User: Which sequence fits this backbone?
């Protein structure tokens, strides 16, 4: 079983739609959680950290469910520019070593 | 501009010919790391460095070497490249090893093909 699992997608949605991605992690001792965005053939960039109480940044909302060991990313009012691969990132057990999921691809169509 | 600079961006080489991919950051970051990215496998850590002269293996270190003689530079060395090292490589840095909430800053990537 992979340490961090994501649905590879692609999720194909129209502009303005709301879309949600989930990610599961295997190590219950993990403490740090992030979402990164990666455009095709480009470097990953930090989108947002995920906090226990959930957090929002504009159209993006991240949630953490420790009991079920998953994190989610909700994107509201999707824009064409949101088309990218979204990487779920979790630290390995209680260390600060980060483990990257394989990514979920999002395509937003006009 | 704060950045991580990798060179070269693209490289095609032959099996067994030693090569070095350079990585340099101008943010005075302590922590630096190398990843490779392959389809379906995500980013996998090769080596990391918590500070000058402090390096350690990641999840896939076989066939690679690194050094950290200066804070800003963290080159990745392939002594004898093989076709299974064909991949997209990223260098990343972070302010401190124990502060992941600062996030990683990644270089633009090096696409390596070994024939």
Assistant:
């Amino acid at each position: 079983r992979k340490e961090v699992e994501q649905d590879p997608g692609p999720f194909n949605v129209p502009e303005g739609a709301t879309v949600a991605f989930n990610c599961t992690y295997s190590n219950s001792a993990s403490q740090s959680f992030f979402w990164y965005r990666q455009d095709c053939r480009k470097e990953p960039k930090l989108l947002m950290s995920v906090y226990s109480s959930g957090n929002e940044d504009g159209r993006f909302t991240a949630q953490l469910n420790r009991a079920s060991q998953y994190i989610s990313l909700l994107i509201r009012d999707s824009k064409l520019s949101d088309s990218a691969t979204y990487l779920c990132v979790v630290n390995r057990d209680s260390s600060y070593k980060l483990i990257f999921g394989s990514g979920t691809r999002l395509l937003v169509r006009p | 501009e704060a950045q991580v600079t990798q060179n070269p961006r693209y490289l095609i080489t032959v099996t067994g010919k030693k090569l070095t991919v350079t990585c340099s950051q101008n943010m005075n970051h302590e922590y630096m790391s190398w990843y490779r990215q392959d389809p379906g496998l995500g980013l996998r850590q090769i080596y990391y460095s918590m500070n000058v002269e402090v390096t350690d293996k990641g999840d896939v270190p076989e066939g690679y070497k690194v050094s950290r003689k200066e804070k800003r530079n963290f080159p990745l060395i392939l002594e004898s490249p093989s076709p299974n090292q064909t991949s997209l490589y990223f260098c990343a840095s972070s302010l401190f090893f124990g502060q992941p909430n600062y996030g990683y800053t990644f270089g633009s990537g090096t696409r390596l093909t070994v024939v």
Summary: The interface with chain A takes residues 35, 40-45, 48, 58, 88, 90, 97-101, 103-104, 106-109, 111 of chain B (CB under 8 Å). The radius of gyration of chain B is 13 Å. The CA atoms of residues 14 and 115 of chain B lie 5 Å apart. Chain B has a mean pLDDT of 92.
